[in-house]
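Not sure how to ask, but would you mind making up any protein sequence you like and the C-alpha cells describing how it folds?
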Amino acid sequence: MQSAASKDVVEFIGHNLIGRTLTSQPINTRTHEGHVETTYTDQTFFSNLVQRANRFDFDLTVITRGRRFGLDTEDRPVAPAGTMDAVRVYRYAMTERVSTGQLVGFARYVSSTNTHFDPLAGTCFLVRMRIDDGALLVTEQQLGYGDFPTRDGGRKPQALDCRYRYRLDDGGVLTVEFDQESFDVDIDSFERRPSSDRFPTQFSREQFDSEGAPFAG
C-alpha cells in the first residue's frame, strides 16, 4: 500500500477484523411489496488476509440461519419459499488506484452450502473502502442483478447497494451497522430504479467464549 489512507484500511482489517466473529441480532424483512417475509440471523467471520504491493485480499464467511415465506392477503404464511440456512464465502480483492489513492475492488460470491435457491448465487459487488472517523466504511454495489423471490415462488431481477460501518466501541468490542437498498433492474440495459422494498438496519456485535476471549473464525 502506498497512501496513508490505504495503509490505515489494511491495518484496521488486520488488527480488528481478521480472526474475529460478529453475530447479528435477529432480522425480519418484508419484500415484494410486503408479500415475502424473511427471518434470519447471521454470524460473520474474516480470514486469509494477504497483502501485496498495491492490493490485498481476504475472505468473509457468513453463516446464516433462517426461513423465507410467502404471505397471503392477511399476512399469514402460505408456503415456505426456501431456507436461509447456509455457509457462504465471499472473496474481497482490493486495489489502490495510483491516480487517486482510493481503494477500489470486488467482492465475489465464491461458494454456498445452501441446497435451496440463493438470490446472490454467481454475483459480484463493486467495493470501496475507507476509514471514516475511526471506523471502516465499506460500500458495495451489486453488478448486474440477482434473482430475488416473489410471493408465488417466482423470481425477479433486482440488485442491492450495501453499506457497512465497522468500528470498535468504548470497550474495544467490534460492532458493525449494515444497511442495504434494493433496485429493480432492466435486464437489457441494466438500468436501475429504486424498488419498494425497505430493509431495517442490521446490527452485529463481536462474540466471546466462556473465558472472555473473542471467537475465532
